[in-house]
Backbone:
C-alpha cells in the first residue's frame, strides 16, 4: 500500500465508511450517537474514518512520491511483522504484530500491546539517508483502544549514535489521530528513523497506519528576516579551578561549554556539547570538568588540555534534567536529577556509573547536592528534604530538622568540617551530618532566598541572595551583610580567589567580582564576547508608535527597529514571559520573580510595580483592557502549588490586585477581555510538581466591574491544560496544551461548541482583520481557525523552531505579522492570496 495525502477536493461520504477502514464492533451511526451523548455535537468531532483519503479516480490511497519510508502502510509482512521496520527492543518483538482488524487504509496496520507499566514497546523504521541542515516531518496515524501512543523523529550520525529526537503524544481513545513531528537534521546527521512507541510508564494497546517521512520546505518568499531576534550569553552551570572558570550556556542549542581566564577576563575556548539546551550542573574532579545537561539528562566529561568532550552516559528519561553535580573528597562525582529525583554516582577511577536510587518519593527535583568523606547530601524542591546517603551502604536518611517549613525549597547546600549547611527559604540551617544540633541563621533582606554558598579555605562561609545580589558573611551564628554584587540577577556559583576577591557567575551571562576590602564590584559581560549567540525566544510585542519590535529572551529584551536596521539589548532580571507596549513604554512580566516592570525603550530605564506574589511565579499573558484602562496578567502558581492568579494593574498608580480564586485549584495560562468580561483559561496541572485535584481545564468568565465570577465551565472533557483563548465576534476560540493542539470555537451566549479540530501543537491565538489565526509549536505552523472554520487551514509553515515558551504572532497594520524564524526576527506574509492550499492530511 502506498501512503496517502489529502486531496484538496476530497470529502469522504458522511454516511459510509471509506474503503479499507474497519473498526471492531461498531458502526458509523453508533459512533455519532455516542458523540452527541458527550455533548460535543456531530460537527465538532472528527470521525475515525474522516481522515482516510482516497484518489477520486480509483478510490484507493494516493501515492506519495516524497515519502522516504519503505512500506509506510505496513502492507508488506514477513513473519508477522511489517518489512522495513524492526522492533524497538527485544521485549517489543513479542508485543508488536501486523493487524487487519483495525486499519485506516489498505488491508493492514500494525498493533502494539504494552502489558506493563514498566515496559517500553516500539516499532522503528529502517534508517533512511537525510541531508544535514534540512527540515523533515514525520507523521503517522494512531488509534488507541487504551493508553496512549508516541511518535518519534530520530536523527543519527555516521557512527550510528542517535543525536537528536523529537516526539508527539496521542492520548485520544477510539479514533484515528494524526501525529506530526518536525525536526531539523543536525549538522552531523546522516540518517533518520521514525519510531512508533508506547512509553515505559504507559499500559495499553494502539494501532498505527499510514506513516510518512519527508523533507519540508518553507516558502521563503513569504518570510523576511532581520537578524538575531534575541542574543544571549545566559549561563546555568559554573565551576572554578584556580584562575580558570568554566560556564555552560542556556538557550543556545547545543550548549556551549566555555573556558574563561578569570584573571585576564577573557574567553579562552568554546566547545559545543553534543545536544541539549544547557547544563545546570558542573563540577571539577581530577582536573576534568563534568557537566550535566537538559532536556536530555546527559553526563559529559570535558578534557581541558585537549578540548575533547566525552559523553559518559544518559541518566534519566527524555525531558529530564541533571540539576546538580558535586565532587567528593576522593574525586567521585555525584549527580541529582529530575523528574525521578534520583542520585547517580560516577567513579573516575573505575569509570563506572551507577544509580543510587530515588532520594525522595514525594518530589521530582533533586535540586542541590554536596558530599564529604562519608555521605552525599541532597536538597529537594518544591518540598524540603535534606537526604543524607551513606556512600558505602546506600542508606538514605532525611536529616532536615523538624522545625523547618517543609513547603520551602532547598536552594543551595555545602558540606564542610563534618557539618552540612543548607539554604532553606530565607535562612541557612547548619547541622551535623545526622541532622542533630541544628543552628538557624536568618538572612536579612533575602525574600527570594539564597542561591549560592561557598566556604573559604580558612572556614568562612559566604552566601549570595537571589535577586537582591546581597552578599552575606557568617559571623558566629549570624549572617552579616557585607555588600551587593550583580543586583537583580541569579547566582550560578561563587568562590573566593587566593587574593580575597569573591567571584560569582550571574545567570544573565556575567562574571562578577566583589572586593570585600573596598566594597566595590564590577562585571565581565559575556554578551560582549563570542559566548553570545541566538536565544530561544520568550515573548514578542509590536509597538506601532515607535515602529519597534520587542523580543524577550533570557535576562534580556532586544529592541528592534527593522526599518532602521538597528537593535539593542536591555538587560533585565529574569525571563520576560509577557510583554505589552503601553503609552510609549513597555511592560514586562518576569519569571521567576513575578515582578512587573515598566521600561522606557529609549534609554532602558525601568520602574518596578513590585512583585505579584501570592505564590505566583510564571506569567503567561498580559493584556490591556482599553475600556477600563487596566492591565490584566494571567499567572501560574509556583512549584508545588495549584492556584494561579489574575492580576489587575492600574498603570498610573501602580496598584496591583491579585485574584487567586477565579478557578480554584488551577493555574491560569491565558486571559482575554471582551465587553468588560475577562475570560480566564485554566490549567489543572498547576505549578510544576504539584498534585492536581481536577482532570480537566476550566474556563471562567470574570466581570471586571463587579470583580465577580459569572460562570465556570469545562469546554472539552479530558483536556487538563487550556493554553490560550481569544474572543472574536461573540465566539471564544481556545487551544489546549493538553491534549496538545486540540482547538475549539464556542458561542459565548449559548456556550455551545461550534467547531473543533486538532492543530500541530499549541501556542497563541490572535485575531486580525476579521480572521482568527493560531501559531503553534511542534510543526511550527501558522493556521487559520476562524471564523466559521470546520477545520484548520495551514497558512504558513513549518517555520524553523525558535520558541522557548509557545509561538506568538504580532500583526502590523496590513497582512504581515511579526514572529521568529530560526531564532531570527521575522515578518511573515499572511495575505489571503496565499490561503489557496489546505493542510495535507
Residues:
Amino acid at each position: 500500500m502506498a501512503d496517502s495525502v489529502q486531496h484538496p477536493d476530497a470529502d469522504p461520504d458522511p454516511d459510509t465508511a471509506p474503503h479499507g477502514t474497519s473498526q471492531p464492533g461498531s458502526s458509523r451511526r453508533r459512533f455519532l450517537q455516542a458523540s452527541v451523548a458527550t455533548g460535543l455535537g456531530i460537527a465538532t468531532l472528527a470521525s475515525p474514518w474522516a481522515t482516510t483519503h482516497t484518489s477520486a479516480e480509483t478510490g484507493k490511497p494516493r501515492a506519495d512520491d516524497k515519502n522516504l519510508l519503505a512500506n509506510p502502510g505496513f502492507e508488506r509482512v514477513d513473519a508477522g511483522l511489517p518489512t522495513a521496520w524492526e522492533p524497538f527492543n527485544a521485549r517489543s518483538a513479542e508485543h508488536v504484530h501486523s493487524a487487519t482488524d483495525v486499519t485506516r487504509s489498505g488491508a493492514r496496520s500494525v498493533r502494539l500491546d504494552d502489558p506493563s507499566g514498566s515496559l517500553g514497546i516500539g516499532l522503528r523504521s529502517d534508517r533512511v539517508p537525510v541531508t544535514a541542515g534540512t527540515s523533515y516531518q514525520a507523521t503517522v496515524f494512531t488509534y488507541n483502544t487504551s493508553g496512549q501512543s508516541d511518535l518519534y523523529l530520530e536523527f543519527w550520525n555516521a557512527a550510528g549514535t542517535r543525536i537528536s529526537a523529537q516526539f508527539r503524544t496521542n492520548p485520544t481513545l477510539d479514533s484515528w489521530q494524526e501525529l506530526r513531528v518536525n525536526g531539523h537534521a543536525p549538522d552531523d546527521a546522516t540518517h533518520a528513523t521514525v519510531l512508533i512507541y508506547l512509553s515505559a510508564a504507559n499500559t495499553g494497546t494502539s494501532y498505527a497506519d499510514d506513516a510518512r517521512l519527508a523533507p519540508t520546505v518553507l516558502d521563503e518568499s513569504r518570510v523576511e528576516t532581520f537578524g538575531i531576534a534575541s542574543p544571549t550569553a545566559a549561563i546555568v552551570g559554573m565551576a572554578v579551578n584556580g584562575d580558570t572558570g568554566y560556564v555552560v550556556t542556556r538557550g543556545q542549542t547545543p550548549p556551549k561549554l566555555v573556558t574563561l581566564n578569570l584573571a585576564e577576563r577573557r574567553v579562552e575556548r568554546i566547545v559545543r556539547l553534543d545536544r541539549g539546551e544547557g547544563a545546570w550542573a558542573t563540577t571539577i574532579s581530577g582536573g576534568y570538568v563534568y557537566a550535566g545537561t537538559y532536556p536530555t539528562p546527559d553526563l559529559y566529561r570535558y578534557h581541558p588540555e585537549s578540548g575533547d568532550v566525552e559523553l559518559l552516559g544518559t541518566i534519566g528519561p527524555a525531558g529530564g534534567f541533571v540539576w546538580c553535580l558535586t565532587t567528593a573528597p576522593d574525586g567521585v562525582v555525584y549527580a541529582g536529577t529530575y523528574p525521578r529525583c534520583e542520585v547517580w554516582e560516577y567513579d573516575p577511577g573505575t569509570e563506572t556509573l551507577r544509580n543510587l536510587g530515588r532520594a525522595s518519593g514525594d518530589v521530582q527535583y533533586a535540586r542541590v547536592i554536596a558530599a564529604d568523606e562519608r555521605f552525599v547530601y541532597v536538597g529537594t524542591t518544591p518540598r524540603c528534604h535534606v537526604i543524607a546517603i551513606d556512600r558505602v551502604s546506600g542508606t538514605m536518611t532525611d536529616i532536615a530538622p523538624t522545625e523547618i517549613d517543609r513547603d520551602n525549597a532547598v536552594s543551595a547546600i555545602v558540606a564542610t568540617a563534618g557539618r552540612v549547611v543548607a539554604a532553606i527559604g530565607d535562612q541557612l540551617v547548619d547541622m551535623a551530618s545526622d541532622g542533630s544540633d541544628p543552628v538557624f541563621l536568618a538572612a536579612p533582606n533575602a525574600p527570594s532566598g539564597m542561591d549560592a554558598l561557598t566556604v573559604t579555605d580558612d572556614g568562612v562561609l559566604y552566601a549570595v541572595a537571589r535577586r537582591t545580589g546581597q552578599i552575606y558573611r557568617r559571623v558566629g551564628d549570624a549572617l552579616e551583610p557585607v555588600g551587593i554584587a550583580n543586583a537583580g540577577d541569579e547566582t550560578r556559583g561563587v568562590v573566593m580567589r587566593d587574593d580575597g576577591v569573591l567571584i560569582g557567575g550571574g545567570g544573565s551571562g556575567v562574571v562578577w567580582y566583589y572586593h570585600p576590602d573596598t566594597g566595590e564590584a564590577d562585571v565581565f559581560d559575556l554578551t560582549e564576547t563570542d559566548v553570545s549567540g541566538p536565544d530561544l525566544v520568550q515573548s514578542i510585542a509590536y509597538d506601532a508608535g515607535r515602529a519597534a519590535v520587542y523580543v524577550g529572551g533570557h535576562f534580556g529584551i532586544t529592541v528592534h527597529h527593522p526599518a532602521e536596521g538597528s537593535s539593542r539589548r536591555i538587560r533585565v532580571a529574569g525571563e520576560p514571559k509577557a510583554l505589552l507596549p503601553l503609552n510609549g513604554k513597555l511592560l514586562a512580566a518576569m519569571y521567576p520573580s513575578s515582578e512587573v516592570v515598566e521600561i522606557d525603550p529609549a534609554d532602558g530605564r525601568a520602574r518596578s510595580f513590585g512583585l505579584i506574589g501570592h505564590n505566583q511565579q510564571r506569567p503567561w499573558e498580559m493584556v490591556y483592557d482599553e475600556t477600563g484602562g487596566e492591565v490584566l496578567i494571567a499567572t501560574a502558581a509556583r512549584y508545588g502549588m495549584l492556584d494561579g492568579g489574575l492580576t489587575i494593574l492600574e498603570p498610573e498608580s501602580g496598584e496591583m490586585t491579585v485574584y487567586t480564586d477565579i478557578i480554584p485549584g488551577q493555574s491560569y495560562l491565558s486571559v482575554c477581555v471582551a465587553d468588560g468580561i475577562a475570560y480566564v483559561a485554566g490549567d489543572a496541572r498547576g505549578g510544576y510538581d504539584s498534585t492536581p485535584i481536577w482532570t480537566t481545564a476550566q474556563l471562567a468568565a470574570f466581570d471586571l466591574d463587579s470583580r465577580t465570577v459569572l460562570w465556570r465551565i469545562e469546554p472539552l472533557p479530558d483536556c487538563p491544560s487550556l493554553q490560550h483563548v481569544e474572543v472574536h465576534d461573540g465566539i471564544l476560540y481556545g487551544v489546549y496544551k493538553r491534549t496538545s493542539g486540540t482547538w475549539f470555537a464556542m458561542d459565548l451566549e449559548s456556550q455551545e461548541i461550534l467547531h473543533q479540530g486538532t492543530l500541530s501543537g499549541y501556542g497563541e491565538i490572535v485575531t486580525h482583520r476579521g480572521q482568527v489565526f493560531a501559531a503553534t509549536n511542534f510543526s511550527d505552523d501558522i493556521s487559520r481557525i476562524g471564523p466559521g472554520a470546520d477545520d484548520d487551514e495551514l497558512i504558513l509553515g513549518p517555520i524553523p523552531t525558535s520558541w522557548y515558551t509557545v509561538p506568538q504572532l504580532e500583526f502590523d497594520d496590513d497582512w504581515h505579522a511579526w514572529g521568529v524564524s530560526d531564532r531570527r526576527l521575522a515578518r511573515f506574509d499572511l495575505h489571503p492570496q496565499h490561503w489557496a492550499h489546505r493542510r495535507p492530511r
